[in-house]
Each structure stands twice: as C-alpha cells, then as structure tokens.
Amino acid sequence: MKKAWEDSRRRDRAASVLRSLFKHIRCGTGHEVMLKLSDHLENGTELPSLDIVMSLCPDLSQWQEIECLINSRNPSNTAVRNICADLGQYTGQGKGLVLFIEEDGLFSAWAPSPSQTESPASPKDTLDELIIKGAFGPPDLNARLSGSDPTQYNPQEKRALAVRLGYCLMDFFDVNLSSKRIYLLGSSTVSFRNEPLYLSFKSGLPGAAESHIFRVGHPALLSFAKLLLEIDSGKIIHLDAVKHAVTDWNVDIITMSFGFTDGSEQGCDDLRDAILHAHASGTLIFAAASNAGAHSTAPAFPARLSNVFCIYSGDGMGNSAATNLTARRYAPNFLTLGEAVEGAGKKRKSGTSFATPIAAGIAAFLLLYAYQNLPPGEARRFKEYDKMRDLLFHLSIERGGYNVISVGEFFKRPAEARRILLASLLHR
Ligand SMILES: [Zn+2]
C-alpha cells in the first residue's frame, strides 16, 4: 500500500477540476477559486468530493459554493456553456452548484447548499491579514488579562494551525504557497479556531514533474517552511533569501549546499535572477557540484553557472571523493575537504554539500586577510568573481583534473611576498 504522502490522487483531482473550471471562465474578470483543504490524511480508497467556493462576476464580492464530482454525472444534468451565468442563477437562495467534471465537458446541477445558509460563507481573513493584525505575535498582556482579545492565538493554537496546514498543504506541493492565498472561511457559528481553510487559485494548479520528491531546497518545502516561520514569529517574512542577503545584509559570500539536476525546474528562474543580482553587487557565490559521480555529465544548478564557484569534495589528503563528477575541461574545478566532516551531533557527513561551506569559509578568510594587508579599495576587489577565482587558482594544486585548494604553501611565504602576490593578482 502506498504511504499517504505518496498518494497524489487528491492533487491530481484538484488539478483536473481547476483546469476544467478555468477553461470555462471566459468573461476575463479574474474570478477567484478557493479550494477547501482537507485537514486529515485520507487513507481510504474512496476520495471525498472537492468543495470549492468561487467568486461571482461581475462584482466578485459574492461567493457561490460548488461541489465538484468527477465521472458521476446522470443523464439529466445539463452541459455548462457559460459558467458565469450558471453561477449567478440561484445565488442567495441557499443552493449550491454541483459540477460534474467529465472527459467530454462540464455538467451542472443545483442542490440544497451543504451549509444550509441563505447565502454562502464569504471569505473572512487571509492568513496574511491575520499575521499583519498581530494574531500570532507576542501576546498583548493587558488584552489577555481582561480576556478581551479573542483574536490572539496562543502557542498551542499556533501549533494546531501549523499541523492542520501541514496536512492539507503538503498535498499540493505548490511552489507559490503564500499566506496571502490561504483563507479562513466560515459562518460565525463555527468556532474561530476550527474555521475551514481554503487555498485560493487564480489559475490552474501548476504542474510539477517531480511533485512528490522531497529534497533539500525544494521550492515547495521552502515556501512551507516560510509559512510556519511566519505563524511562529507572527511576522511576515520576505523570503527571497539571496536578494535579502545581498541587499539588506550586504553579505560578502553566499554558500548553497544544494542543487537541482538541471536549471529548468520550478524556482530555478528566480534563483538565476537572484544570483545575477548577487554577482552584480559583488557577492561571491559557492554551490555544491553534486554527488552523482559518473551518472551526471554536468554540475547541478546553480553550481554550473559561470559566475558561481562550483565546489567538489575531497578527503584530508586532497584526493577526489568517489562521488564527485568528472572534472570539467574548460572551467575551474575547486576541491576541498568534504569527506567525513564532523557535523552537529558528532555525525560524520560526506559530499559536496559539506565541502561547499568549507570552501566559502576559506574565501572569507582570504578576503579578511586581503583587508588586513591591502588598502580597502584594493582588498574589496577580491569580492569580484574573477579576482577570487585567480587567487584560489594560485593557492591550488592540480590533482587529477581538480584544483585542490591548499592555503598552507601560501602562508609559508614571507609576509611581503604574500602582499605582493595579492597586489599582482589585482593588476593583471
Ligand atoms: Zn465571470
């Protein structure tokens, strides 16, 4: 039996419903479609129908409940020609639209609304609005003591919300997950903490080729981590880590111990833009080559980019690790210690992911040394990719096609010789 997270039926079903719905919207008003998120894992064979709330046109402030069923139409259902007109037909009369998604089109019927209310529930707050209002922030003691602040989540409630979000959102592996797209919906009779959660879509579910492959750095995992951090800290986080580090923190070096098999996966375009920006701002970037050995002919993305230091792993004697890719012919192949590196908890880890931060540390040390021994205006130039590359080349020993970084020789030279070497690298 498949594990619950391997079961992509719900995601597949949502994708086909969204595709079908958006195909039938032709008015161009920008309808919003909200999909109710299930807050438990389904492990049965039968999948429940999908519940949707959709805005009506033209004013978009009214909402209609829709239940979507797949392949269960009966002959009396009518084919949908204009979904906008169909939606408005019984609005406010306590009826819900049932849509039948079939291979040959979309069919509809009206049924009493599942919530039995006169008009359907309207969107209340987005998670984003709740965060801005301070619902997850540090408690306002005065309000707490007087018991007058029911909007604040206490730590247990925050954790419960995080777990609910985990169940329902990981279903979708959606890279554009954001607190702005998560709605808490419901009538006032529903207790505040148990309001159903909805995820809003303005177009179909984006297709993801490897949607269920968990991997460090997967954009869907990053956006989910950001959501959890926002709930925990009570603050909106602007997670464009590379741009943030370059612009706000003004860092000298960024190290990335991850890589994508090629540069066409989701999130890679944003990363490429951010790296170009970092490069232009004089930030050095180090990235892991990959540990695929002979099974890959090119380094991972972003290590393969020409302005990124692509780092290979070796042992303490400068021998190339068995998992390294073959060294490239026309590009630098910097190698440093990455085998059996002692990590947190005394566990030893191996691979280019561990060599990369060590290489970045060596570059940071060389940069500091340059600042201590050259005028600041000159030292700063080692933040240019070409200059740091030349310096690392100078300190490397070629071995089996790799440029093994070895700073020992450099520091055996007299101080004046070191200063002259640094200066000469800048003037060629
Ligand atoms: Zn419309």
From TrEMBL:
InterPro entries per UniProt: DUF7580 (IPR056002), Peptidase_S8/S53_dom_sf (IPR036852), Peptidase_S8_Ser-AS (IPR023828)
Taxonomic superkingdom: Eukaryota
Domain DUF7580, first and last residues per copy: 5-275
Under the heading SUPFAM superfamilies, the entry gives: Subtilisin-like
| Keyword terms, alphabetized | Hydrolase, Protease, Serine protease
Q: Does the keyword Hydrolase apply?
A: yes
Q: Which GO terms describe its biological process?
A: proteolysis
- Reply yes or no: does the keyword Nucleotide-binding apply: no
- Molecular function terms from GO: serine-type endopeptidase activity
Q: What is this protein called?
A: DUF7580 domain-containing protein
Organism lineage string: Eukaryota, Fungi, Dikarya, Ascomycota, Pezizomycotina
